[in-house]
Amino acid sequence: MQKSSSNPQQNASADKTREQVMAEREAKKQAKLAKKQKSVTPATTIITEVEQTTITQKLTTTTTTTTKEQSELPLRSINVADTKTASQSSAQNSTDSVNPTAPGSEKTREQIKAEREAKKAAKQAAKSAKSNNVDAATKQLNNLQVATKIEPAPAAAAIATGAAATADHEKKKPALTKAERRAIQEAQRAAKAQGQTKKTTVTPGSVKSAAGNSVKATPNVPATTHKEHKHDRNDKEESPAKSPSKGGTVKADRECKVKLFNHLVSADKDASLFINDPNVHPSMARLGVQYAQRTIVGSNARCIAFLHALRQVVQDFETPAKKEFGRSLDVAVKHHVDHLNKCRPLAVSVYNAYKQFKNQLTQLPTDTPETELKELLGHFIDTYIENQIGKAAQAISSSMQEKITDGDVLLTFACSSLIQFICEEAKRRKVTFRVIVVDSRPFCEGQEMLRRLHACGIPCTYVLINAISYVMPEATKVMLGAHALLANGYVMARTGTAQVALVANSHNVPVLVCCETHKFSERFQTDAIVYNELCDPNLLVMDGKCSLNNWQSKSRLTPLNLSYDITPPELVSAVVTEVAILPCTSVPVILRIKPDIGY
Amino acid sequence: MREQPLKEVTQLIHAIKMGLVEGSYSITNKTLDIFKYIIMSKSWDSADALMQIVRAQSRILQAALPQETVTSNIARRILKLTREEFELLQAKVQHFADDSQASLSLHKLVTQTSESCVSVDYSVPQQGLREALLDHLQEVETELETSSENISVQAEEHIHSSEIILTLGHSRSVENFLKRAIKKRQFLTIIVAECAPACRGHNLAATLAQEKNVEIIVIPDASIFAMMSRINKVIIGTHSVLANGGLRAACGANTVALAAKHYSVPVIVLAPMYKLSPLHLCEQDAFNMVGCAEDVIAYDSMPARDAKVYSPMFDYVAPELVTLFISNAGGHAPSYVYRLLSELYHPDDLEL
């Protein structure tokens, strides 16, 4: 089975690495499963963005548990793997995360759960897509029309990239072509955004014909085009922020009108950013779009996604003639990171991971062949994910388990994969506790948290942040996730976290911040204004009748949507890290004893 | 003895429950009209009889609308008025001018003992009471009408130019106050927290944005703490002022006040006199009211089926978090509220 498929490839590349074989095998499995599932339940075959994000976020859990159970039940798990990993791997493929250990590895409970959850989400997304079907469909048609025109451009770009060398023969590999196609799609969408600003009206007739063209244009993959379309539609569903932001490009110059925040640039939503830059690897281009559209949110998820994309870049990297591998790769990666930074300011976790990677590059041995070096770097990335994110989460969870006892009422804010992991672990230990999820407009990430906790059967209460004084008397502990821990002990987290800590303090409820050490930052900051991230202010406008509608026309009115806030250390009882449970002010100590984290 | 509500009272209760009459000011106004009508048209021959009627009707209002304390407040005002007018008339008749409460001399304060407060017999019919009451009610009405204006003229005393002010939700007093401030002072920045889920802050922001020389910033409720470090003053309205100087204010006010305390930002509360109520904070459930949760999370969303979702309307703000009350009579410290209450209402009327 392996030989037959890899025939064309064997001709091309003599030194086929293990990873490639693995990736290929996985890809085949996915293709098979896709076929099978299509005949049985078409709804589940849709790999939506929701699924993607949940999987990436779930990775925190999966990576840890795989390593644990690897030693415990190798036999059972392998058996299960044959039958069930396929669908999981399809999801993983879609996030472009071809984990070399994944295909041969096992199917843990967590994975199944994650998968099930993802499917549910997919179904729901499909359902909601139906309601907006008409709208989405027209949008899609518009999209395709531009697509046909742009078609040659991304192809050329793809050849220009480092990936292009292997692209020719790899086209038969669904996994990789898929990634490329996605990148192309993204580019098309971006192109469309630009096109829309130029062309004001699109006649429906031309749209139809164009749509027909585009289907013809990709006849070699008829099985997956359908899926692609669904993708597209779901993209539209997932990012309501997009449509207003397009209108927002007109007044991009006045976006930072708030004087206090003139120094902060809000993420550049300009479409030209997403047009294929020949020097940006497709996986990175895609990641950039996902960052910008906030389909990948949360510092852990962003970090994992970044590292997966980075591995792809390393894999496909070709050293230019007469250049040193390490140095030229460093330059290439820097370019990619700059690109990501333009899409959305880098998360501290991503920045730390990048610094670590750079450090690794400088320490590469000079006398080893390139393939080995690539393998070395791939290994480094894997261990980084496993240790810094996976194992850290596990360590934090185990120390938190001592703190969660029967009858506890935990209060948490917004959505944190780590808090979710801790709650699930506590539930598994059969502790009777309940969770109060506090949420805030405009992102309403708490709803996602609520959904996940609800899926594990944890009883939940849900309130908005201004009702926090109403529920705080019930709470026995406040557990908060963090975006980063600053060197002066301040906690940088989703805006609203500081308020929760403040009210908890006034009610004398202990506040525990859970944060892995890979999120520790060397920066000092005393308020949330010097360094912050501005999100799309249009998100504050409520749909329907809202007096904020077309605020752009009122020169004196500005909605402001801050991303993060800073919680002073006096409001935090303790920080739970994988090293120890510490007071906030001990962050510099950790930075000192763990110098590989940030400098 | 169960009292039957008057037709007007039932109508008012219905209107308020249906949301036809909104805002403390209009509720107070409507209640006052009802009591005026009672005084004018009801057959009562003594002050005692009138007070009985007023008490009964305000009890009905209170039972039907436990959150709207202004109805009881205005009833207490009228009871106090009745007592005063009656005593004044009695004093005129009996020529005991120095016995009236109005002239508490130092000598009297010193010599007064509890026995000297002889209970007045209100059941004696009194000529001219009705006319005197209606006269006095006119004064109360005028006071009510001008209360918002009287509060907003004080804006200049509290706001300087290029100040950054934070407010929460939408209060009519705050709107007028800020409009006045914008007219008088230049380069103000007003930050409005939207107050989800109703997001009434949006309305306030849109209204204020029509003025000139001002910058309006709308923030979600979650950013209050983040912004607080740059704010000079917090100005909020309130639903009612409690006897200890605490507030029953819009949901989220406690967070604002706590954040302001954290950054030592003064919190100014605009409260016209009719919002002062002789109540103390009892338990949360009686104090608060939960609204419709549909706006918080859609009923048909998957986790909403099993999760408990709350959308409370009010927040309790402790008196130590409030810096200053501005009422139509001027500024007051929270510790002074008890004194205002004892001047405003008769001690016997605190319990209706």
Automatic annotation (TrEMBL), chain A:
Major localisation: cytoplasm
- Sequence ranges of Polar residues compositional bias: 1-14, 80-102, 195-223
- Comp. bias regions, Basic and acidic residues: 15-29, 106-120, 167-184, 231-240
The subcellular location is: Cytoplasm, Cytosol
The superkingdom listed in its UniProt entry is Eukaryota
Question: A single GO BP annotation from the record?
Answer: central nervous system development
InterPro entries tied to this protein: IF-2B-related (IPR000649), IF_2B-like_C (IPR042529), NagB/RpiA_transferase-like (IPR037171)
Print the keywords alphabetically.
Cytoplasm, Initiation factor, Protein biosynthesis
Q: Where is this region: Disordered?
A: 1-136, 161-251
Task: Give GO terms: molecular function aspect only.
Answer: guanyl-nucleotide exchange factor activity; translation initiation factor activity
Q: Which Pfam families match?
A: IF-2B
Instruction: Provide one Gene Ontology cellular component.
Output: cytosol
Stretches with biased composition (Low complexity): 44-67, 185-194
Describe, as the record does, how this protein assembles with itself and its partners: Component of the translation initiation factor 2B (eIF2B) complex which is a heterodecamer of two sets of five different subunits: alpha, beta, gamma, delta and epsilon. Subunits alpha, beta and delta comprise a regulatory subcomplex and subunits epsilon and gamma comprise a catalytic subcomplex. Within the complex, the hexameric regulatory complex resides at the center, with the two heterodimeric catalytic subcomplexes bound on opposite sides.
Q: What does this protein do?
A: Acts as a component of the translation initiation factor 2B (eIF2B) complex, which catalyzes the exchange of GDP for GTP on eukaryotic initiation factor 2 (eIF2) gamma subunit. Its guanine nucleotide exchange factor activity is repressed when bound to eIF2 complex phosphorylated on the alpha subunit, thereby limiting the amount of methionyl-initiator methionine tRNA available to the ribosome and consequently global translation is repressed.
Similarity section? Belongs to the eIF-2B alpha/beta/delta subunits family.
* Matching PANTHER family: TRANSLATION INITIATION FACTOR EIF-2B, TRANSLATION INITIATION FACTOR EIF-2B SUBUNIT DELTA
* UniProt-recorded name of the protein: Translation initiation factor eIF2B subunit delta
Q: What is the lineage of its organism?
A: Eukaryota, Metazoa, Ecdysozoa, Arthropoda, Hexapoda
From TrEMBL, chain B:
Output the Gene Ontology terms for molecular function.
Answer: guanyl-nucleotide exchange factor activity; translation initiation factor activity
Q: Does the keyword Coiled coil apply?
A: yes
> Which parts of the chain span the membrane according to its record?
none
Swiss-Prot/TrEMBL keywords = Coiled coil, Cytoplasm, Initiation factor, Protein biosynthesis
Lineage: superkingdom: Eukaryota
The primary site where this protein sits is cytoplasm
Gene Ontology CC terms: cytosol; eukaryotic translation initiation factor 2B complex
Which residue stretches, if any, does this entry annotate as coiled coil? 130-157
Query: Which Pfam families does the protein's record reference?
Result: IF-2B
DNA damage recorded as keyword: no
Under the heading InterPro entries, the entry gives: eIF2B_beta_subunit, IF-2B-related, IF_2B-like_C, NagB/RpiA_transferase-like
Q: Where in the cell is it found?
A: Cytoplasm, Cytosol
Q: Which family does it belong to?
A: Belongs to the eIF-2B alpha/beta/delta subunits family.
Subunit and interaction comment: Component of the translation initiation factor 2B (eIF2B) complex which is a heterodecamer of two sets of five different subunits: alpha, beta, gamma, delta and epsilon. Subunits alpha, beta and delta comprise a regulatory subcomplex and subunits epsilon and gamma comprise a catalytic subcomplex. Within the complex, the hexameric regulatory complex resides at the center, with the two heterodimeric catalytic subcomplexes bound on opposite sides.
Protein's name according to its UniProt entry: Translation initiation factor eIF2B subunit beta
What organism is the protein native to?
Drosophila navojoa (Fruit fly)
